[in-house]
Design brief:
449 residues; mainly alpha; 17 helices
Length: 449
Amino acid sequence: MIPINAEYVLFAGALLIILADFLRITLHIHDRKIIHYLTLTVLIVSFAAEVLLGNMNIAFFSSTQYSGFVNGFVLFIASAIYVFLLADTKDHSVFIDFLFLFATLGALLVVLSSNFISLILAIEMISIASYGLVFFHKTDRQMEGAMKYVSISFLSILIVIFGSSLIYGGTGSLAFSATSVKNYLPFIAGIALVLAGLAFKSTIVPFHMWAPDVYETSDGTVTAFLSSVSKTAGLVAMIRVFFFALPVSSNFVMVMFVSLAIATIFFASFMAVVQEKIKRILAYSSIAQAGFAFVAIALLDYVGVHAAIFYVFSFAVADALVFLAYKLFEDNNIIYKKDAKKMFPMSKVGTIGLFVGLLSLAGLPPTIGFFGKLLVFQALLVHGYVYLVVALFAIILFSTFYYFGLIREMELSKVNNSLRRYGANMHVKEGVIIVLTLALFVGVVFVSL
């Protein structure tokens, strides 16, 4: 008996979307809302299947200790983003529905990949679907962002493929569970190339250069998806490769990983401080958050993996929240920090959601971001890296400048009803903001998992 799980539901749902649209065109039905609701149903059913029925267990894809948790929160975030998208656009192309399901399926399969072939295929599923999502409204600015994303993604996957071939030359296997080094020269070169290729997907410095421009030019809902679901897949791919497939816990690898992580956090925080556009501030903040997760991954043990997985969860929810909340105001031409004072009159819920999301990203209690950073610090202290904890804490204090610089401009106490401008289905979009805001507090219960 074939188990019904999230991956099967998403795959069948994507095919069903194509069939339903073909029937719609054949019957000359112009209304596409039924297909959009079908897409939402597929996402909700896949989330329920993941929570209730578990994961795949076949040759190319197999469940891991943390896969149920990761895929569960990926589906939760993806469902929330799609509800927001549906409320924001009312009636978009069915092709967008297919791409959304396809990209979400790719993210789930990254978590379940059992060898380099399945990992590369899963990453490409996300990338190919994301190309179309970035070019959502077919504007010149989105075309620019899409071209940058396509070129960088194409380069990164070529690097991963070449690195994987070198690892195969050094180990004689592409399976994560059967890599034993026979020839160290191609093996080490392969590790370096795979790290570089996955770092593009995870926005690790110096492989981050595409992210600020692509995030800024993309539609807000697409940016939320890229910064949460897609980036989660990239970081989990790091864990799959460097912890389960290549357990090379040497001091050299540790120093290399930590150096990249510190560079990512510091550089992204510095760039965020000097930005005036709100979306670019959020983009560099997202890059910095990936650096914190990478610190825990660098430990290459179960304590570090536990901290990294929870931290990815915490910042993915917060990233989805802040980008969706800002989407409410971006559409009303609030672009720069100086315009943030107009936010509260337009949407109190959106402003409070953005406020709480920023607090979580800054790591302030009692939000989930605080506990995520606490777990990372705990993992470092267990290994005796006190100096690293001190350095990270100093960077966190530095990063509060751009978070509180934006929060200070919001002026939560001022109300001017003349500025109140609601868009389409505003209450539905605010409902999504409320759900994600609550998740930043409810998610704290997963700390002990």
